[in-house]
Amino acid sequence: MTSSLRLSTVILPIRRWHDGGRALWVRAEELGFHAAYTYDHLAWRTFRDGPWFGAVPTLTAAAAATERLRLGTLVTSPNFRHPVTLAKDLITLDDVSAGRITLGIGAGGNGFDATTLRRSDEEPWTPRERADHFDEFVPLLDRLLREPSVTHEGRLYSANEARNIPGCVQSPRLPFAIAATGPRGLKLAARYGQAWVTTGDPKLYESGTPEQSVAAIRGQVSKLGAACESVGRDVSELDKVLLTGFTPDRPLESFDAFVDFAGTHAELGFTEIVVHWPVPDSDFAVDEKVFERIATEGLSQLG
C-alpha cells in the first residue's frame, strides 16, 4: 500500500445487478478509482424500505466484472457476522478477485444490524459490548485468514478446528482497514490494521463547521499515532482512509470544493479519500458530471 493520495468510491448495493448494478462497478474502474467499496449491512438508514443487496455476493459479482479495481467493505461488523464464516467468504472473495479485496471492519453501531437478529425482548449490545466483541473478533479473524486450521475458545467466539485452505491470495492475508476512533478500536487498528478508517466526528455533522471537523480529525490522527506508539509500530505503516459524507464539508458540491477538501486532508496525513457514488433523491445526490470530473481530474490538481 502506497503513501500517495488515492481516490475511491462507495457504491450502495441498491441496484439489481442486471438493471444497472453491474454497470456502476464497471464504470468505477473506467473512471480510474483506486477502489470501490460497498456497505455490509442488513438494511441501512433511509434505504431500509427499498432494495438492498448483500455485500459478499455483490463483491463477488463485481470481482468477476472488473480486472484492476480494488474491492471491499466499508465496513463489516460483528453485529451479524461470525469470524469463522466471514473468513471463509473472504478467502473465496480474495480468490475470485485475484487478490483485490480489502476488508473494512468496525465495531458496528446501533442501527438495523444491531436489532434484526435479536428477539423483540432483547436489548442490542451496548457500546462496551460492541467493543468487547470487536476486541475478540479481529484477532480471531486475523488468525483464520493466516492459518490453515484454527481452534479458539474465547469468551464470545469459538472455532473448533476451523479449516481455511488454501488461504488468501494476498500474503500473509488480505488487508484490514479498521474503522475506529475510541482507544480500544485504535489499538486494534495499530496492531492488526493495514489501514485506518474514519468518518470524522459525527457530532459535528449537522451543526459543526468544516474548521471544527478538521480539528477533530487532526485529533483522531494524533490518537492513532499514540496507539501505534503504544504497540511499537510506526504510524506511517498504516494507510489513513477518510470516508466522506459524514462531516460538515460538502466536497462533491463542486470540483474546486473537492480539490480544497482533498488538499486539506492530505496535509493531515490521509492516503485515501472515499466518496459516495451519486444516488438521486438521497443525501448522496450530486451532479454526475462534477462527480466524474472529480474522479478523473481531482487529484491531479493537488500540489
- In whole angstroms, how far apart are the ends? 21 Å
Query: So how many helices?
Result: 9
Tell me, rounded to a whole number, the average pLDDT: 96
Q: Approximately how much helix is present in the residues?
A: 25-40%
Strand line-up across the major sheet = 1-2-3-4-7-8-9-10
Principal-axes shape call: globular
Number of strands: 10
Structural class: alpha/beta
- Which regions contain 5 or more consecutive residues with pLDDT less than 50? none
> Sheet bearing the most strands, described?
8 strands, parallel, barrel
Q: Rg to the nearest angstrom? A: 19 Å
Order of helices and strands: EHEHEHEHHEEEHEHEHEH
For this structure, the quaternary state is: single chain
Relative strand content: 15-25%
